[in-house]
Design brief:
The complex is a heterodimer of chains A (378) and B (233). Chain A has 378 residues and is mostly beta strands. Chain A is 9% helix and 43% strand. The chains are: A mainly beta (378), B mainly beta (233). Chains A and B meet through helix 1, strand 1, strand 2, strand 18 and strand 19 of A and strand 2, strand 3, strand 4 and strand 5 of B.
Chain lengths: 378, 233
């Protein structure tokens, strides 16, 4: 073979190779895939969390007439319980002596309706439940008034009434509250209001030592150390996140949540409305869990470190990443006129009481958002 | 030990070869066409291959030379999912997210030095080869918004047969494994990981774990020519 023929043959081979290597498909760099996603950022709500106040007797120890040393506890944001009860305790400052309180329980209920002009009309009613030493009543529109006296609860005259505590009890209460102690009022943190010693209730995990108590909040510095002390002392943990609906899948991706108080957990919900904006269906989006691929439930995050990768800091760890994910394919009533999640107009992240009925949205909203109009059709 | 025994057996066989098919101290040129199948973790699709081998025969059994391989393929688009957001997630109405597979063409040039050991017979000559060199990946400037070139070391092992047509020409069928070192799969992502899909990970194909090396299996058919003198092996 002479050199010219070799060159010609090689050229032909290269041409064929280049033609083979280059196809029109190569100019395509992107390819849309699947359904569109519709998202909206969550907004911190922190509304209707358990709260209240207590009115103490004027003196820590009994007066000359203990029957008039009244102790009044007012509570709101309590969810009704399907198992277990709320129990009110009166104790001393160091929490070494507790007396289970019995008293007169009155439930104040506020209902809201719209009049013909579309204005909100509030109406209140009250029900005197009677003298109880525990109760399971609750609801987002109910306030509890629990009234008693030192004499009524049999508190020794020499013992100081410096603490009012509400515990969650699953069985017959013992001589001291259970480990679920979500609400408390200290005399030392109270002030005289209208001549009466009045203190606001704190919600979280009670501890006899003031520096060790855990107060649940979504706008204060975290009770946790993540790094340098100066950084941790000023680090405010504000929950944030977004919802996104893509086809049949509904997700809530969020982060920066305080650890739930003992006896509570986080759950997300979506609410369907009618054309007048009335709530007609509430669907659970599941309990908060770690992100993919673990998806470990944060249900027991109140007492355990579910996953140290997503929950850390001491002494009160913070949940740093979470996700809810459900499919309309597995939940009845979520495909409306052929479109998954159509007319579902709101998303809530709530703090749920473990003793409340499962599958029922509780009273304590932590995050909320109106869904994108592409989802809600509103 | 097993390798040593195989090598010894090969040398023994070579020593008994009576018919010399390769002339020492001669050059040969092989143009090759074929395919390259990258390792799945590299996120590269199978592509066409054009290659050129130039070999100098040290003796009847051994040679040395230079190999050049040029490929133009595509990235595996499903491994690069990007979210394109329109709208404002903080405003009423929210945002709309388009999910996209993002791929791009990849030009790869591999240049390496190689050594060849063969066992010539009258018509066919099996051979094994190995070498080292460098590879250069060149991406589209417009897609990536910048000049995107990556260069790193590589090594090759392989083998095949030469089939003699004439004294000077023949064909070559070979298979090679080109291993790219310091491979960076992120280099192939035009979005540079800015808009990853962390919301619906399980709704898209799973992406294999990235590795620092990328194996490429090359199959090629070549035309082999020995200029200037008799040969064809």
């Amino acid at each position: 073979m002479n050199p010219m023929r070799l060159v010609a043959l090689t050229s032909v081979a290269l041409t064929v190779a280049l033609a083979t290597a280059c196809t029109e498909e190569r100019a395509i760099t992107t390819e849309p895939v699947g359904s569109l996603g519709f998202g909206q950022n969550l907004v911190k709500a922190q509304s209707n969390l358990p709260r209240g106040r207590a009115i103490f007797p004027t003196a820590p120890i009994a007066s000359a007439t203990p029957a008039t040393d009244s102790i009044i506890v007012e509570l709101g944001g309590l969810d009704s319980l399907s198992s277990g009860n709320y129990v009110v305790w009166v104790g001393n400052d160091s929490a070494t002596k507790f007396v289970r309180a019995s008293g007169l329980l009155t439930v104040l209920r506020t209902d809201t309706t719209l009049n013909a002009q579309g204005d909100a009309v509030f109406s209140t009613s009250s029900i005197v439940v009677g003298t109880v030493n525990q109760f399971s009543t609750g609801g987002s529109n109910r306030l509890m008034r629990f009234a008693t006296t030192r004499a009524a609860i049999g508190m020794p005259n020499a013992d100081s009434a410096n603490l009012v505590l509400v515990s969650l009890e699953t069985g017959t209460p013992g001589t001291a509250p259970s480990v679920r102690r979500p609400l408390w009022v200290r005399r030392s943190q109270s002030a005289v209001v209208g001549g009466r010693v009045t203190g606001g209730a704190r919600f979280g995990n009670y501890n006899p030592r003031l520096s060790s108590e855990y107060v649940f909040a979504t706008s204060a510095a975290a009770n946790a150390v993540f790094g340098p002390a100066a950084f941790s002392a000023t680090t405010v943990i504000i929950p944030r996140g977004r919802i996104e609906v893509r086809g049949a899948i509904y997700t809530v991706n969020d982060s920066n949540y305080y650890r739930p108080p003992v006896g509570y957990f986080y759950e997300a919900w979506t609410i369907r409305t009618d054309t007048l904006g009335r709530f007609i269906d509430t669907v659970s989006l599941g309990r908060k869990a770690t992100p993919f691929p673990g998806r470990l439930s944060f249900y027991d995050a109140d007492t355990q470190i579910t996953d140290p990768l997503f929950m850390f800091g001491t002494p009160t760890p913070v949940i740093f990443a979470a996700q809810h994910r459900v499919s309309a394919d597995t939940i009845a009533g979520t495909v409306v006129r052929g479109t998954p999640w159509r007319e579902f107009a709101f998303t809530y992240v709530t703090l749920q009481n473990k003793l409340s009925p499962t599958g029922r949205m509780g009273a304590n909203a932590v995050m909320v958002v109106g869904n994108p109009s592409s989802v809600s059709f509103r | 030990m097993r390798t040593m025994m195989l090598a010894a057996a090969f040398v023994a066989l070579a020593a008994t070869t009576a018919q010399a098919q390769v002339q020492a101290k001669r050059f040969s040129v092989t143009t090759r066409l074929g395919t390259v199948t990258p390792e799945r973790s590299s996120s590269l699709d199978m592509a066409g291959l054009v290659g050129l081998d130039t070999e100098y025969s040290l003796n009847k059994y051994f040679g040395t030379g230079v190999s050049v391989d040029v490929t133009r393929g595509n990235t595996h688009r499903e491994d690069f999912v990007a979210r394109l957001r329109y709208g404002n997630a903080n405003a009423s109405g929210g945002d709309t997210v388009y999910y996209q597979y993002v791929g791009q063409p990849v030009n790869t040039i591999h240049i390496g030095a190689m050594g060849v050991a063969r066992y010539p017979t009258k018509h066919i000559t099996p051979f094994v080869m190995g070498g080292f060199g460098t590879y250069t990946m060149l991406l589209d400037t417009q897609i990536n918004g910048k000049a995107a070139i990556k260069n790193a070391a590589s090594y090759t092992v392989g083998g095949g047969v030469w089939i003699k047509f004439t004294e000077r020409s023949g064909i070559q069928i070979d298979a090679r494994q080109l291993t790219m070192r310091n491979f960076d799969r992120g280099f192939l992502d035009p979005s540079a990981g800015r808009n990853p899909n962390r919301v619906f990970p399980e709704d898209f194909p799973a992406v294999p774990a990235a590795k620092r090396t990328a194996g490429n299996f090359m199959l090629s058919l070549g035309f082999r020519y020995i200029p200037g003198s008799a040969g064809g092996n």
